[in-house]
Write a structure and sequence with these properties.
By secondary structure, this protein is an alpha/beta fold. It has one domain: Rossmann fold (3-Layer(aba) Sandwich), CATH 3.40.50. About 30% of the residues lie in helices and about 30% in strands. The chain contains seven helices and 13 strands. The chain has helices at about 30-35, 80-95, 110-120, 170-175, 205-215, 230-240, 250-265, and strands at about 5-10, 10-15, 20, 25, 40-45, 60, 65, 95-105, 125-135, 150-155, 185, 220-225, 245-250. It has a nine-stranded mixed beta sheet with strand order 3-4-13-12-5-8-10-9-11, sandwiched between helices. It has a two-stranded antiparallel ribbon with strand order 1-2. A two-stranded antiparallel ribbon has the order 6-7. β6 and β7 form a beta hairpin.
């Protein structure tokens, strides 16, 4: 093993950006790092990949008109390029999932249909199509469309027929006042109180990840986030005693994730 490498849970890694307790942040290209990870080592993956919205348009933030451009990481030149991107990372993600592992992928209509097709092409079985209904979406500035107030979260297992995925049905029913939990989840956008560590354009609210992690993992399971961003997945994983690995190519976002993980008890 080289000086800049170490093993964590059987996974050979380059020196991490952050490593404390059972949480690890890696500064790397997601494709490159996924290709080096130990096969079938992760119990669950949550991914919030680029939505590819950076097209020169405008949006609303805090009542102000702002650009939708987020950075070069959020740009593609064609539909074929977008789908090739999704198919490639999903293929690599499948390799690191355990046989009974599952993957959750969030996205808006700009990218989620490509994601769904890529999942099926790579042999995943889509278990649920979760609709996240936002109670306080940004208004539609053009007044030419319905207000965009939902996102989709796809939940899939690794194998179409053989896998036996984990689902904590009893807990989800308990959290839903004794009734079966449905596939429409309603709640607000990320609270300002969760954005204290820095700004990220697509930070997910903690309640979403709490439900996802509690529904599909057990304590000490390994959770991977290949586009970790501001680190919400890691914060919630740590909160509920899961082991966590997050990857991102942007040090600015890793620093936000690190700061949040440090504060999480």
């Amino acid at each position: 093993m080289k000086n800049n490498e170490f093993k964590y849970g059987g996974v050979l890694m380059t020196k991490p950006y952050y490593h404390k307790d059972q949480s690890i942040l890696i500064h790397a290209d997601t494709f490159e790092f996924l290709s080096k990870m130990k096969p079938e080592s992760m119990d669950m993956i949550f991914a919030d990949p680029p939505y590819f919205l950076s097209n020169g348009g405008i949006s609303n933030s805090g009542g102000k008109v702002v650009s939708v451009n987020k950075g070069d990481w959020d740009k593609v030149d064609s539909l074929d390029e977008k789908h090739a991107f999704n198919r490639r990372w999903i293929q690599l993600a499948k390799q690191v999932l355990k046989p009974n592992g599952t993957i959750w992928i969030s996205g808006s209509f700009h990218n989620i249909y490509s994601v769904g097709m890529a999942l099926e092409q790579e042999g995943f079985k889509i278990l649920n199509n979760i609709t996240w209904q936002k109670t306080n979406p940004a208004p539609n500035l053009s007044c030419r469309y319905f207000t965009h107030s939902t996102e989709t979260i796809l939940w899939a297992r690794k194998d179409e027929k053989k896998a036996r995925h984990y689902y904590n049905y009893d807990l989800m029913k308990e959290l839903n006042e004794g009734k079966q939990m449905k596939d429409v989840w309603t709640g607000s956008l990320t609270k300002r109180s969760e954005k204290w560590a820095g700004k990220h354009p697509t930070q997910k609210p903690e309640y979403l990840l709490e439900r996802i992690i509690l529904a599909s993992t057990r304590e000490n399971d390994y959770i991977l986030d290949p586009f970790v961003g501001s680190g919400t997945t890691g914060v919630v994983a740590k909160r509920f005693k899961r082991r966590f690995i997050g990857i991102d190519a942007e040090k600015e976002y890793l620093e936000i994730a690190k700061t949040r993980l440090e504060k999480e008890a």
